[in-house]
């Protein structure tokens, strides 16, 4: 079934000029770009987005980092978009991500893992609302 996923290239990916390559991977997988914006996100939006990690010792750094420069936020649509996007992206820690995945190819550490992708269709809807409204 066709669904939408929220995907966001983080400041390290934008800064390193990886937007074109990453977008192309989604397109080649059949996930169509239906909306995109290069923007800086507010501290409030970042804290809400990472609310599930509020108790973690790295929370402050995570919020500082994601607000440190522009992100490339996008909505992609296609068959099982959430699962397909997560599999293109790879696991959270780039050291555990296989070559061929975005994090496996480009991630330099768990705090610099290049890209975010929604982890469920429910969260995808929430994130689309949060970042595009
Ligand atoms: P994912 O981004 O794969 O959905 P997550 O939702 O658990 O992973 O965490 C969100 C982000 O928080 C993750 O992309 C990078 C950061 N993060 C997670 N675990 C971390 C850790 N142990 N140390 C530093 N940053 C971490
Ligand atoms: Mg997550």
Automatic annotation (TrEMBL):
Its EC number is 2.7.4.6. It is an enzyme of class 2 (transferase). One of its GO terms (biological process) is UTP biosynthetic process. The keyword NAD does not apply. PANTHER family: NUCLEOSIDE DIPHOSPHATE KINASE. Major role in the synthesis of nucleoside triphosphates other than ATP. The ATP gamma phosphate is transferred to the NDP beta phosphate via a ping-pong mechanism, using a phosphorylated active-site intermediate. This is Nucleoside diphosphate kinase. The lineage of its organism: Bacteria, Bacillati, Bacillota, Bacilli, Bacillales.
């Amino acid at each position: 079934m066709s669904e939408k996923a929220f995907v966001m290239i983080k400041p390290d990916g934008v800064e390193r000029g990886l937007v074109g390559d990453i977008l192309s991977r989604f397109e080649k997988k059949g996930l169509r770009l239906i909306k995109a914006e290069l923007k800086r996100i507010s501290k409030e939006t970042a804290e809400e987005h990472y609310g599930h990690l509020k108790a973690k010792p790295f929370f402050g750094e995570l919020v500082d980092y994601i607000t440190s420069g522009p992100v490339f936020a996008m909505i992609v649509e296609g068959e099982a978009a959430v699962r397909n996007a997560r599999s293109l992206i790879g696991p959270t820690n780039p050291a555990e991500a296989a070559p061929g995945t975005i994090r496996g190819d480009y991630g330099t550490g768990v705090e610099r893992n290049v890209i975010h992708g929604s982890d469920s269709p429910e969260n995808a809807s929430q994130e689309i609302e949060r970042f595009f409204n």
